[in-house]
Amino acid sequence: MGGGKSKRLNVVLRNDASTTLFPILSDLGIPAALTHEAALALHRSTQNAFKNASKEIKVVVKLTGELSIEGLCTAVVSHARGGCHFKRGTTENSHLDFISPDPQVGERICRVFFIQSGGTFPIILEDFDEIVHISEIPVLPIHAVLLEKLITRSRLPAPEPWRSRDAKFAQQCLVASGGSSLQHLSPLWQTPEILDQVLQHAQKVPETRKRWIAFGFDPSILTPLPPEPVLPEVAKNDEGGHAARSNAYKSKRPVPVANTRLNVTIQGPGNGHTPVTDVAARRVVSLLEDLGFLCALSGSSAAHVYSRGETRILERLDIIVLPPPSFSPTQAWLSQQLFQRDPNNFTYDPANETLFYNFDPDLVLPQPFQNDRTCKVELLLPGTPGVPRVPPSCIVWIADLPVVPFLTLLLYMLEKWGDQRNKRDNTRDLKRLLTLVPSLPVSVFRPWKERKLMSATYQAKSEVRVKKFCQTTLTKPIWKMLGFEVEP
After folding, report:
1. How is 388-440 classified by DSSP, letter by letter?
2. pLDDT digits over 20-43, tens only?
3. Three-state DSSP class for 231?
4. 56 - beta bridge partners?
5. What is the H or E stretch that residue 260 is in?
6. pLDDT per residue over 47-97, tens digit each?
7. Any residues with CB less than 8 A from the CB of 196 and at least 6 apart, and which?
């Protein structure tokens, strides 16, 4: 039989299976809709939309009570009538084989696969009233067809690269999706598993990157992280310092790194201005940029910027410095450089390798700074224990200040939360940051997007800390919004 005729008969077979199955599901009171290749073909008003569509249909069903997919298969088999019949699949109980009475399809069999929505499975479609009927067949909206495909891939027992056929199918769904922001249609579009599938697809089909962005996805999500640079061991002098290494850097300078600033607006009652974030931080950031380094506020300073001044004011400024790949400075060398460029505003203690910012005598300061009128400046480098990895593309700009990603900060503070000496204060700061989540732009909190910056061990420990934190605070809904499991 010619290939063209065979494909046409497959279309007839799939239509027969669909028009027979859905009345049965309706009689059983099961909300259901066609998905996958057959659904895409109907949406595009041509059965040639996916020319190699096989002899199968996939159907999303919303089951209630104790009815399982296996129980649904049994119910459909017993309700089939009119010469058409279904039988159990020969290899597994979770699908059916449809045999059509149409003589032109011969002995062809159409496989019917059911995909559950809800219950212990992801909710593919919140409201089944959104189902569209095409040629009297209920079909998922095209955005839900695409989501179902990504969910199916994310639930594979082992990760698999996108096959060309699947990648083409997802691309055609994108083209047919119109212009709506996908992330507003289902919260699943912001889960780490789906975001990872979006990234993989954009890598497989680069021309779809702009289309994913047009549908509301942050460009940084579609940019794979660069390999983490390996910092060489620091050669110490006889006294345990870094003088020899620091001297070697005096004649060198890093190549400046370009960075695109896109300020994010954070809503809140305060203005976030403190001596640390609005005076010391701006001066340190400016000097580091002059030296050719990108950087990001971390710790309490970053929390103060995100919360617009509603977390504690600490007398310390933590800044992660991101050297270019070709340049590996030490913390001591960086501190020396800042001091040499602005000795009036900085004090450097070479013996202890500590750097302080000195506030102007005429500046009116709040209570914590009125005695010493200084704040300690910690310049942190990637690769140092406890310092998160922050690629340049992940830096968030707020009020012209670079800060670490929100979730990176949140999990870092959660790690410090267990310190019994400051547990009450740490709890209050964490709870304040969590209250920001519903009002933050999606591009800022991107559920679990920063997981790629963390080791598997750190992720696992973070999951445990989140559950422990939820036991003592009423914060479960927010952590769930961020994509965490909250039940022990």
Report:
1. PP--GGG-EEETTEEE--HHHHHHHHHHHHT-GGGHHHHHHHHHHHHHHGGGS
2. 999 999 999 999 999 998 899 888
3. coil
4. 111
5. none
6. 444 445 578 899 999 988 788 898 999 899 888 765 567 888 665 567 899
7. 154
